[in-house]
Amino acid sequence: MVRLRAGPSASKGSLVSHFLKLAVRLPAVLASLALFVLMVMTFCDVVLRSVFNAPIEVAADMTRLLMAIMVFSVLPVVSAQGGHISVDLLDGFFKRNHLARWRDAFTNLFCGVILIWPAIRVFVLAERSRSYGDVMEYLGVSLHYVGWFIAAVTAVTSVVLIVRGLGYLFAPKLMSAPHA
């Protein structure tokens, strides 16, 4: 019986594959956990408010924080997978004229470049919030942490969309057709 050993390049490939799988799963787990906590907190808040006239005072702060985590944590993953909602009114035209690849490249590059401005702007606002010492009303958490998170994830999404657009231009066979 002969056993074959994988060389160093095979282990590097599996390491990259493992990292990519983790990079996709971690934001989804984070968003799922945030949604679950939001759901349980809302249920408890309604019961406590209705039955005991004692609402959860941090519910508003927690809702804002958890919504930011839910929405922005999965934004790069959804963008990388081409999972955004789109209207396909002109898909027939683009497919007939063999322009779908160019449309997808332009759309991804345009959106990626456009997202640079909100990422920078949110970072500037987060820094302003940090300099003012703004905190959440009940939790006391500094608001700039939320701003930094949103700015960082928006910047990552921008990079993902630019790479995706360049993929459509230079490596179209690697890109899967989003509506096929």
From TrEMBL:
Superkingdom of the source species: Bacteria
Topological relation to the membrane, as annotated: Multi-pass membrane protein
Sequence intervals crossing the membrane: 22-44, 65-85, 105-124, 145-171
GO MF: transmembrane transporter activity
GO BP annotations listed: C4-dicarboxylate transport
Coiled coil: none
Record keywords: Cell inner membrane, Cell membrane, Membrane, Transmembrane, Transmembrane helix, Transport
Domain Tripartite ATP-independent periplasmic transporters DctQ component: 38-164
Cell compartments where the protein resides: Cell inner membrane
InterPro entries xref list: DctQ, TRAP_DctQ
Chief location category: membrane
GO cellular component, one term: plasma membrane
Function: Part of the tripartite ATP-independent periplasmic (TRAP) transport system.
Subunit structure: The complex comprises the extracytoplasmic solute receptor protein and the two transmembrane proteins.
Similarity comment: Belongs to the TRAP transporter small permease family.
PANTHER family the record matches: 2,3-DIKETO-L-GULONATE TRAP TRANSPORTER SMALL PERMEASE PROTEIN YIAM
Protein name from the UniProt record: TRAP transporter small permease protein
Organism for this UniProt entry: Roseibium album
